[in-house]
Amino acid sequence: MMTIQNYVRPQTLEQAYELLSKNRRNRAVAGMLWLRLTGGSIQTAVDLCDLGLDTMEETDDAFVIGAMTPLRKLELAPGFAAYTGGAAARALGDIVGVQFRNLATVGGSVFGRFGFSDVLTLLLALDTEVELYGAGRMPLAEFAELPQTTRDLLVRIYVKKTPGNVAYRAVRIARTDFPVLTCAASRLDGKVRLCVGARPGKAMVLDLTEAAAGGLTPDTVKSLAEEAAKQILTGSNSRGSAAYRSHLVRVLAERTLSQVGGFGNGD
Ligand SMILES: Cc1cc2nc3c(=O)[nH]c(=O)nc-3n(C[C@H](O)[C@H](O)[C@H](O)COP(=O)(O)OP(=O)(O)OC[C@H]3O[C@@H](n4cnc5c(N)ncnc54)[C@H](O)[C@@H]3O)c2cc1C
User: Fold this and answer.
1) CB of 46 closer than 6 A to ligand 1?
2) What is the dotted CATH code of the domain comprising 56-160?
3) Taking the complete model, does pTM exceed 0.85, yes or no?
């Protein structure tokens, strides 16, 4: 069971940051869907709901996603859907259910850096940066490797509109369950990336640009997928064995890279 001593709704980012910096037992609260399952004792719950961070904006060169933006908003945003060619809906659409995705936030998902995260896998395949209060902007790939500290306040996520395409697939034992494996491939400005999550560890990113320099042909994609299955570290848990996951890496890598190469529909 979780206990909370105080509950505060700061009105400015500065107040929120001060509260989070003050005591390691103070915690940022977003949708609270994950946090409530973690148990433990929170000194002050710092609810971020009054900070105006639940908006998503499209500029000429980026999608600017406030940390409190619900997953459902990201899933349905027409500009983001068009930019990702439907990959966003693919990545988000099986996360529990619509009511859940109306509450769970993009910031909570990114901050959590969960191994099983569909959200992290998709965003790592895109040109994504995060903005932390005080520390400023950094690439998501860098942020994903940092240890979690309760002092960090994630403010916004920036997905740059780098020209290219992206494809997403995941395997679940049953719809709405946690994924057995997540996979996103992208080719942005000629840079080819493959991200695999739910290994069950956090998403790993492979830069395939050099290996795909001759173009993404069916033969190249096949060998890239075989190589990815060797390079991506997998483990076992109740949802699948390491061997099964490595098999899925090969299959999903081939499907997503084929789609990015323009000769497959990802299925
Ligand atoms: C039963 C269940 C099933 C799920 N299945 C999936 C799935 O299949 N795929 C998937 O991708 N995800 C899944 N998730 C994760 C979910 O989508 C959200 O990522 C998760 O609930 C966190 O979002 P939240 O808004 O609820 O954050 P919270 O639970 O409120 O917070 C999560 C953590 O992030 C911190 N935090 C939140 N926002 C900020 C911020 N702006 N700055 C600093 N720290 C912050 C909190 O302090 C806390 O440590 C699942 C979650 C649950 C509970």
Assistant:
1) no
2) 3.30.465.10
3) yes
